[in-house]
Amino acid sequence: MKPPAVVAILGVGLIGGSIGLALRERGFKGRIIGIGRNRSRLRKALQLGAITESTTSIERGVSQADLIVVCTPVDCIVEHVEQISQHAPSGAVITDVGSTKGTIVAALTGKTGDAHFVGSHPLAGNEKPGVEHAASDLFVNRTVVVTPERKTNVEAKKRIVRFWKKVGADVVSLSTKEHDRSVAMISHMPHAVAAVLAATPTAGQLKLAATGFADTTRIAGADAELWVQIMRDNSVEVLQSLEQFIDNLEQVRCALEHGDYRKLSRYLKRGKQARGSLGS
Amino acid sequence: MKPPAVVAILGVGLIGGSIGLALRERGFKGRIIGIGRNRSRLRKALQLGAITESTTSIERGVSQADLIVVCTPVDCIVEHVEQISQHAPSGAVITDVGSTKGTIVAALTGKTGDAHFVGSHPLAGNEKPGVEHAASDLFVNRTVVVTPERKTNVEAKKRIVRFWKKVGADVVSLSTKEHDRSVAMISHMPHAVAAVLAATPTAGQLKLAATGFADTTRIAGADAELWVQIMRDNSVEVLQSLEQFIDNLEQVRCALEHGDYRKLSRYLKRGKQARGSLGS
Fold this sequence. Notes:
The structure is a homodimer.
Chain A: E1 6-10, H1 14-25, E2 31-35, H2 39-47, E3 53-55, H3 58-62, E4 67-70, H4 77-87, E5 93-96, H5 102-108, E6 116-118, E7 120-122, E8 143-146, H6 154-166, E9 170-173, H7 176-199, H8 203-206, H9 211-216, H10 224-233, H11 235-257, H12 261-276
Helix pairs in contact in A: 7-11, 11-12
């Protein structure tokens, strides 16, 4: 298992750009081919040193690549991987960075010809999109989930794990089901909650918002259409998480309504304890 | 209207300590008397330069003060201001930093003898309590709401406004009703939401939480008992805000359930727009 000499990145935005920057900062000497439709974005990625060359052709971009990372929106990934698999060299490994895994992995596993697909999801990001916000340390001490299936090529999985470790990430292996359920709970559903929280006050009330409100609603600043796609793709799990959250919140509402401040206290303490188990 | 020469601070924690530090950094040359029950906390405040002297006696602490700031928990403020008003010099101005204003201001306005009470609420804070987290710039570019009533002494109100401007704050004057409704919406209710959000995932799911979840739940790390008091004191408005939030969230749940992604998109966009109107 030799390390890849040519990495291709389809979609050189925040995540794709950060992968390129991280590889180069961590001593990767091979070619990093950026593939995209928008020439000015590709130029920017070249200028920032996130890629070493660029092309608007998927065919040309992947035809010599050992490892290909698809960093396009969730609802384009299956189509893009299918295209790539027709042009990638035999034995090439393809992964993605989509926030959902169930539908993507089911559609692609064992269906990429002589290339191998392994699903990935880096739990790192930023509400600010674009290669201009890419950072070589975006994945450092962050978790990347890989979701191999029984049919997944074992060697390909090892190469993808090594790739994510190379850019600084901790790698966790989960089933697609576990992954989708977990991210619904700790990412997709909270995104909907933050958006609704930001949208509920009046403009006058918003003027009084302090750092607490700004923190709590920060993720609502992300691209709405991308998040609709993510929630749509993972709708069953997002709906279930949201129902569970609303049930709990309903308990707090009920405690407030009936002046049951012990119960309210129990909820706030449980929240404080859970929050304390995270970092800052 | 001459500036105060002696400021007394009852409760030298994060807020009280930051007031002292800010006054001194901004050229206040008078005495700053810290009053509290805990001698070791008072010593720490002295060491950090947040106060110039300390006492455990309210009577001694306020008997020579021109301006007294009560930085104790919401459910102690009325009692503390009443005590202070019995020992403060005639014409002294007393304010508080409580997160709710309705009950406090109603209980105290016109009832502090020869001293004058004006309600305040600095919309600044930190989930980390204690004078060790105090900072001289805590109020810089932050809003402080003052809530004068018809009976409030006009001169006293002016002195309190000048005092908050002195420590770097922007001052906004609101009725207690407007204040309590607004902070329920942009602070108290979001606190309950953040706590429930942190408490809903399993421990295993929490391990996958990234920066987004950490931001969204940060305020849940604050002291639970203090927040129970605040929500209790402002329960009518907090309940109303929470009901409004749950109604909106219910719309999103319903959109997800019925696959109405246009509606979901409208909500996410509204959230993004509202969030964009805040700073970072």
